[in-house]
């Protein structure tokens, strides 16, 4: 209202375009997919009492390594190359996260400090690698004398690319926009969420991780290795973050570009907190963020830029705050009702 726009129109435009049609839902799920990975990374570490702020760096390393595999081993068939890229992404993120995990377990150095520092190292290191493996300029660029403005790697092989949902849905006679970017990495993210739930609540490892998160001293007294579980929790967390590349590179741009990933690791913290550090909650929170992200972009277009992106980000934050507040209000009402009864 302060900038002369009808708030009802803005909210209606945001939500109707995000969830009112199949194209909107496709874009929402595409934007939610990387947030599911980074949200799960943060949530898993939280369950062990760890604050993994290094999702950004783990994502950089895992994604770049998957990209490197994708454009290096071009002769491999898809049924080998796709799993190899996915496993490489997870392994890269896990190994990068192992460093703060080992330092925390063996020396007591706080993981927040180490992961923040390693984010900067990962960003600079991957940028150096991008320059080393930079794609050569195209013939058209050479002829026009145009230099490559944003460095990027060579494209990954066709066999390393994840299929989009469009041809799959078309084969099932389901109408879906051909240009929509959502791909099967969304289902990989759902599978990872199920895996995270299974590990945490259905295995001995998950029991030990949660026990360490509740009380390291009590866990150690009960015969649980605190150091081992801290390292494993950080590595699994890092593996989840590294899988962001399945959506951003293997299913979308097919090459590494630095601007693809800005902020995804840090947004995962908000997703995990909003999802109460539960895999199902993380998936739902990521979808909410996807709705706000895509709907906000549409609002910017519909208002012809009168509502800037910065204000839309504020709008998104306000909606998330209201969701959190309403959740706490409901919890307090339930507690008060129980006291009365």
Task: Describe the overall structure.
With 341 residues, this protein is mainly α. The protein has a domain at 36-262. Helices cover 73% and strands 0% of the residues. It has 15 helices and no strands. It has helices at 7-19, 22-47, 55-72, 78-107, 111-132, 139-144, 165-171, 185-202, 204-214, 216-221, 226-242, 245-253, 264-274, 279-302, 309-340. The longest helix has 32 residues, at 309-340. The chain is globular and about 70 Å long. The chain starts with 6 loop residues before the first helix and ends with a helix. 44% of the residues are buried.
CA gyration radius, whole angstroms: 22 Å
Structural class from helices and strands? mainly alpha
- The average pLDDT value, as a whole number, equals 88
Number of strands: 0
Helix count from the secondary structure assignment: 15
Whole-Å distance between the termini?
44 Å
Shape: globular
Q: Outline the biggest β-sheet.
A: none
Order of helices and strands: HHHHHHHHHHHHHHH
Uncertain runs are none
Strand content: under 5%
Helix content: over 70%
Summarize the helices and strands and which ones pair or pack.
Layout: H1 7-19, H2 22-47, H3 55-72, H4 78-107, H5 111-132, H6 139-144, H7 165-171, H8 185-202, H9 204-214, H10 216-221, H11 226-242, H12 245-253, H13 264-274, H14 279-302, H15 309-340
Helix pairs in contact: 1-2, 1-14, 2-8, 2-11, 2-13, 2-14, 3-4, 3-5, 3-11, 3-12, 3-13, 4-5, 4-11, 8-9, 8-14, 9-11, 13-14, 14-15
């Amino acid at each position: 209202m302060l900038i002369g726009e009808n708030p009802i129109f803005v909210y209606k435009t945001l939500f109707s375009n995000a969830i009112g049609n199949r194209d909107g839902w496709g874009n929402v799920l595409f934007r939610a997919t990387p947030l599911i990975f980074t949200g799960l990374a943060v949530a898993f570490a939280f369950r062990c009492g760890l604050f993994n702020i290094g999702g950004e760096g783990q994502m950089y390393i895992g994604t770049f390594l998957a990209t490197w595999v994708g454009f290096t081993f071009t002769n491999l068939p898809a049924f080998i190359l796709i799993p190899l890229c996915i496993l490489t992404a997870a392994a890269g993120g896990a190994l990068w996260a192992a460093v703060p995990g080992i330092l925390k377990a063996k020396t007591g150095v706080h993981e927040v400090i180490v992961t923040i520092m390693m984010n900067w190292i990962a960003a600079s290191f991957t940028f150096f690698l991008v320059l080393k493996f930079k794609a050569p300029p195209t013939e058209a660029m050479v002829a026009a004398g145009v230099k490559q403005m944003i460095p990027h790697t060579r494209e990954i092989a066709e066999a390393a690319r994840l299929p989009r949902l469009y041809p799959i849905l078309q084969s099932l006679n389901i109408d879906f926009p051909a240009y929509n970017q959502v791909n099967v990495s969304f289902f990989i993210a759902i599978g990872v969420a199920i895996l995270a739930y299974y590990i945490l609540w259905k295995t001995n490892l998950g029991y030990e991780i949660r026990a360490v998160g509740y009380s390291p001293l009590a866990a150690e007294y009960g015969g649980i290795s605190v150091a081992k579980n801290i390292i494993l929790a950080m590595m699994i967390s890092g593996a989840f973050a590294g899988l962001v590349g399945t959506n951003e590179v293997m299913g979308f741009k097919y090459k590494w570009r630095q601007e693809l990933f800005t902020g995804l690791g840090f947004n995962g913290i908000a997703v995990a907190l909003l999802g109460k550090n539960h895999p199902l909650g993380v998936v739902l929170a990521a979808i909410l963020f996807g709705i706000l992200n895509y709907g906000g972009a549409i609002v910017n277009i519909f208002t012809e830029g009168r509502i800037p992106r910065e204000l839309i980000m504020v709008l998104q934050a306000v909606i998330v705050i209201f969701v959190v507040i309403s959740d706490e209000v409901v919890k307090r009402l339930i507690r008060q009702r129980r006291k009365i009864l």
